[in-house]
Amino acid sequence: MASPWWKVARSEEVTSAKPLAVDVGDQPVVLWRDAQGIARALEDRCPHRRAPLSRGCVRDNGWLQCGYHGWSYDGESGRLKEIPNMKDEQRFPPVYKAIAYAVAESGGFVSVNLDKASAPPAPVLDETFPLNGTAHVSLSQGEWVDTLFDDPGLVLDIRGVQFTPYLMSELREENGLLVMERFCQWGKLHLPSYATAEFPITLITRTRPDTGETQAVLRDDSFRTLLTAQIAPVAAARGVTQVRWRARLGEELKGRHALALRLKGSFAVRENVDAAALRVLIRSASHRAQQLREAILPATPVSSDPSVSPDSSVSAAA
Ligand code: FES
């Protein structure tokens, strides 16, 4: 299976003022913008003595300079461009070349692919949603995505919205994505019988089976879109998942509850997951999701075991 693209930063986080350290699984990556404003990504280890390049600086010409002995690297190729105090007639040892990763940018996200030579075309997002944030969550990436399927309320916070345990239909595969439609309520959750409950809103999620990247759409009972969010959970070091998101509110928000969404903080990915609730959460939609993933991705079956999460594809690519 081709190495996937990972959304490793929001566009505003990547600048030419300071390198940014991110992770893709256990692989440290440094991001910055070169003199043309193009986002670049190298392995975050200097080929000289393995110092993190993210501790260095971006030079005026766009090269990344290591903070230890001052060697400078080109972002596109990873080539060593300059060693301080080296005489003109001396040549750079070719072994000192940083690993360069493929980089793409769209929709307000910077994505990297760890296998530059065989990276497929990067998915393109046409629109950049204005609301955005990054949450660091103490869950493996696989567990985070499973929790999104089983109880979105443990990982997402949408102002005034309560997620019920009820799905409109069984989680399904559609165009290679895992699609879930969940009934929701405004305000305090009542747990009535299924027959008498009112469910004025629905959360529809479309999730990539390989990366867990998800588009979430909240709709009212007239099928008006209240909110759309792009959510990108990426495995980081030490079992942490970095979840980057962007969202926008619908154009036709109507009613008291919907208007409340306009207030600041209408959407967020939770930094802290309720561990007590998570411990007793029964596997439901995530079980079906795993069956579908194994059918869609036969070469790299995805396990629910957090130690063998979708992150395994990262290690392979690294
Ligand atoms: S470790 Fe980077 S220049 Fe020496």
TrEMBL record:
The keyword Oxidoreductase applies. The keyword Nuclease does not apply. One of its GO terms (molecular function) is 2 iron, 2 sulfur cluster binding. PROSITE patterns: RIESKE (PS51296). Residues 5-112 form the Rieske domain. It comes from the Bacteria. This is Rieske domain-containing protein. Keywords: 2Fe-2S, Iron, Iron-sulfur, Metal-binding, Oxidoreductase. It comes from Sphingobium fontiphilum.
